[in-house]
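Most newcomers find our protein records easier to grasp once they have seen one. Sequence and backbone structure share a record, each on its own labelled line. To make this concrete, we reproduce a full record directly below:
***
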Amino acid sequence: MDDIANEPRRAILISGAASGIGRATAQLFAGQGWLVGALDRDAAGLARLADELGTQVWTLALDVTDRAAVLGAVAAFDAVAGRLDVLHNNAGIDAKGLFADMAWDKVQRLVEVNLLGGMSLIHAALPLLCRTPGSLCLTTASASAIFGQQGMAVYSATKFAVRGLTEALSVELAAHGVRAADLIPGIIDTGMLSAEEKAQLPSDGPLRVISPDAVAQAAWSAWLGNELHWFVPAELAPFDLAARQDPEAVRDRRIAGSPF
């Protein structure tokens, strides 16, 4: 009992924490007794989270594309927590439509939020991660990082990029005792999924709609485990292997109209 009582209060910093996967992750880690740092553009959503979690959560409204704000947020959380056991780089947006038809400002915004914003947060937090023994740099990628999703080309590109970043950091950061991993969720029941889209999806299999809680549980498993890529649902892992082994076959099936 004395050893448990003397354990430090662990801390996680989550971007995109006001809703969806980020909110579910905040709830789970707070329930485990962690101090949760919650970042999001949605100040009202953060206020609701603070009302729910009370002293377990520290919140700050910001846009991850604002470099000065990101640096300030990490410094402020360091002052409160003094450690960073998990950075959950989760903030992201999507935009559907053919690449040729997409306005260029929308292309830029997707890259700025999903890739550059995430890289900015990781880069700012690295000193604190390196100071915290056994820490984890965790990023939310997507099943669109298994094989690029038609109609979501730019989104897919950003998620492939963060997957590649995670793999590189898993090697680079090992010398500092920091692990890197990513979550690769399929179709998650968040605000990105419309009611019409949800109604057209199957009730089972890898294309079934998954609760954000399942992804949060994968985040907890990533903290406890040592895998590099965490597929949610697990049935996505065989598809990932098939796409690596024979991408042309996946391409041809997609052209023919098959989701796999």
